[in-house]
Amino acid sequence: MGFMDLAMKRYSVRHYEQRPVEQEKIDAIVEAGRLAPTAHNNHPVRVVVCDTPERLAKAALCEPRFERDGSIFGAPLAFVVCAKPDVAWTRSYDDMNSAPIDASIVCDQTMMQATDLGLGTCWVCAFDPEVAKREFNLPEGVEPINILVAGYAQPRELDPERREARRIPLAEFTDVNA
Ligand SMILES: Cc1cc2nc3c(=O)[nH]c(=O)nc-3n(C[C@H](O)[C@H](O)[C@H](O)COP(=O)(O)O)c2cc1C
Question: How many whole angstroms separate alpha carbon 14 and alpha carbon 150?
Fold first, then answer.
């Protein structure tokens, strides 16, 4: 599938089948993340692969709503995408640290690879990073930035027009004054 078709196909999946994701697919998804570019080639990103009930339960504890549900949208797979700000590049002019950018590029490549493999995904930032640090016993200096959940999506009818209506118009997107 071409990239534009893939980008059009992807949507945030919040209902998953219980079917596990095949190990080859998990490996390919992780590899796509590993290949992602990072600022100054510093590679500050680390990923916790949650492919066991124990790890998935830890991921769900990171947000009260998921803890109540016992899972993040019922997904059988999650990636906690972390970054080390001390390793990430810092822009000298304003001290901008690239850790969240690098972690988000990894997350995006991971997400698109999962989409290409026929999986649904949902990018999750609404979680308590302190709980994630504790639950996954993250070493000092490793910051959880994104959680990407993945799995086989429960079938759902999507209305392309409604989806397009929720996107920003092209003229606005390319106009910084808009
Ligand atoms: C950085 C980022 C953080 C997000 N955090 C959450 C989240 O915490 N919970 C959630 O349900 N969706 C989250 N999303 C998904 C967005 O809500 C979703 O991508 C957006 O509404 C567009 O819908 P679509 O993905 O179906 O095209 C996040 C997406 C991004 C890119």
Answer: 9
Q: Which atom of ligand 1 is nearest to the CA of 11?
A: 26
Instruction: Give CA–CA dist 150/29, Å, rounded.
Output: 10
- From the CA of 126, give the closest atom in ligand 1: 8
39 half-sphere exposure, CB direction, 13 A CA radius? 18
Q: Using CA positions, which residue lies closest to atom 9 of ligand 1?
A: 124
What does pTM read for this prediction? Answer: 0.97
3-state SS string for 114-134? HHHCCCEEEEECCCCHHHHHH
- Per the CB < 8 A criterion, the answer to whether 154 and 17 are in contact is yes
pLDDT digits (tens, 9 = 90+) for 25-36: 999 999 999 999
Domains along the sequence of the chain with CATH: 3-173 (3.40.109.10)
